[in-house]
Fold this protein.
Amino acid sequence: MINLAGRDILHGWGKFVFTGVGLGLLIGVTLSMAGIYRGMVDDAQVLLENGGADLWVVQRDTLGPYAEPSSVRDDVYRSLLGIRGVAAAGNVTYLTMQVKHERGDVRVMLVGFEPKQPGEPAYLVAGRPITKSHYEAIADVKTGLRLGERVQIRRHEYTVVGLTRRMVSSGGDPMIFVPLKDAQEVQFLRDNDALINERARTAANPAFNRPGVPGLLEAVQASQASSHNVNVVMLRLTQDADTTTVAGEIRRWKHLEAYTRAEMDEILVAKLIATSAKQIFMFLVILSVVSGAIVAFIIYTMTQNKVREIAVLKLIGARNRTIAAMILQQALGLGAIGFIVGKTAATLWAPIFPKYVLLLPGDAMRGAALVMAICALASVVAIRAALRVDPAEAIGG
């Protein structure tokens, strides 16, 4: 049996292979889009996993701290430790910001944490943990910072004493960990000019500057120069504790919101990245349709160029299903070349992307099946055209 795909490879291998490479690059883009979505989901799950918490306690009626702003007092953890089943509690702050270092600036999520409490970096790949109360930092390797390097965060410089890996926000920004007090100062306190203006306003307010109440103005101004808020209190529970029960007690008696791991995962995946996921899905649909149209056009054109050969086959008695099988084989061969090229390209350029691209074997298998299905459907037009070829065209009729 004459194989049309084999004939194209033998007599026009350059055209066939380059067509497959072009299709492969399009498939590579499609696989990369799927990998970007997987990377976003993985970033969200890693964010929850690295905190080492079983419960996230945030401001009431908010989805904080990752999806909405949340502010709770930093002494709340004392009362939370009194709840049965709570083993450890850690105050944590989050702030996405731009920081400067010697070789430029980088966008990061600044994390304030307490040593040996939930919220601390799970592991280090180099350096040591933070041992001083101020001006030391642990950075994710994705920030490009090195051990011993100094980084400018607002008014102060911090020395990088440790490096960690895969510590990123739900948006993919690498994290920098600093002591909690430093992070509170960065996030909640005003700069010097704003403090001076605020003190002047307070002094001009007769409610705070009463002649008969000495010390009131100083107390109010001192409260403005300090911060005792955090974004979330992370709780680690004992092994026999039930997370749902503990969360219910916190909501009922502490007037705060408490989320379990499953609920935070739902917030991050179903709410925070839902819009991005829908957008990526639309891109995948469009790319699939474009890929199918391109394959259909290529197969149809290649079939039209072999009208005389197909007519000869019909003239010597070849059945329609034999001709259809040959064209289908040609389409599937083109799809196989395209998928191999696309998978290789997506694997090679994935590390170059600024955000994490996660290529799962399961997605690759589903992608291969989808490519073959699209190629099979795209060959229908060419098969119908081939079956309408008149055998008389073999002798110029």
